[in-house]
Write a structure and sequence with these properties.
alpha+beta
């Protein structure tokens, strides 16, 4: 949870509040904030959102970091494990003795030089586990851990009122269904997501590069294409989401990936994948 912890401490500094001050302005005690900020306990999602509001920070990035931390601590991962990313077409030397996994989970795996075959198998296994952790959907904290005074924990919109809005900010990403999931030729991963409670669908991506773009569209609705782009290294290490579109069961949907690199070794082609709302 190191990245989440450091982000929360930075927000706390920005608020100018002490632990007692945070306790006075939120439903969480001084001792709870001490545990949250020092990484002793994973905070409830609502605590992260309230700290973002006090610091004047958009919720999206910190909530994405919270989702990853919650997935790691809960040990979930069997239901949506994607296949490992395609191997690099160019053989890579093996200069280090142990495997290394980057935060984004899609590059950096190396085998042991003396046991190249065994090392490559281990690297693929590690890649699958890390990608599975990044992929997992958010699951709400158990009811007993949420303060009774917390409000607005459920979806903040429904169907047409959600159109063009952020699925995280509207609490529509709490327990979504994955309609389609695909790995691209460049190593990025795409998902078509659906919230039954909100009656909406959207797309998300992780493992991309700065400049990579995704488009989400409902078949027959050319006027409601939703787009998102990786603009920072932080986004490349977490998720980017498109805005939502109202969808009903049976609706055909599509997500397209357009890589940033147009030429050279990293160049890729536009890739599109289709799904159907259920």
């Amino acid at each position: 949870m190191n990245q989440l912890d450091s982000s929360l401490r930075e927000l706390k500094t920005r608020t100018g509040l002490s632990l007692a001050g945070l306790a006075a302005k939120t439903p969480y005690s001084k001792s709870s904030w001490e545990r949250y900020l020092n990484g002793k306990t994973l905070p409830p999602r609502e605590a992260v959102e309230e700290l973002c509001q006090l610091a004047g920070e958009p919720e999206g990035r910190c909530v994405a970091l919270w989702e990853i931390a919650e997935a790691e601590t809960s040990g979930r991962g069997a239901s949506e494990t994607p296949p490992p990313p395609p191997p690099s077409p160019i053989p890579i030397p093996v200069p280090v003795p142990t495997p290394k996994v980057t935060e984004s989970g899609h590059r950096g795996h190396r085998g042991v030089a003396a046991l190249a075959a065994l090392g490559s198998v281990c690297a693929v296994a590690v890649a699958g586990v890390v990608i599975a952790l990044l992929l997992l959907p958010h699951r709400s904290e158990p009811a007993s851990t949420l303060p009774s005074s917390t409000t607005g924990a459920g979806p903040r919109c429904h169907e047409a009122t959600c159109a063009g809005r952020d699925p995280l900010a509207m609490h529509c990403a709490a327990d979504p269904v994955t309609l389609v999931m695909h790995g691209t030729a460049t190593g990025a991963w795409l998902q078509l997501r659906r919230s039954t409670e909100c009656g909406t669908s959207w797309a998300r991506m992780w493992g991309g590069r700065i400049g990579d773009r995704i488009e989400f569209a409902v078949s027959g609705r050319t006027s409601t294409v939703r787009r998102a782009e990786v603009t920072t290294a932080e986004q490349a290490n977490t998720y980017i989401y498109t805005l939502m579109t109202e969808t009903r069961p049976g609706t055909a949907v599509r997500v397209c990936f357009e890589p940033a690199a147009k030429t050279g070794a990293a160049a890729g082609k536009r890739e599109c994948f289709d799904g159907r709302v259920r």
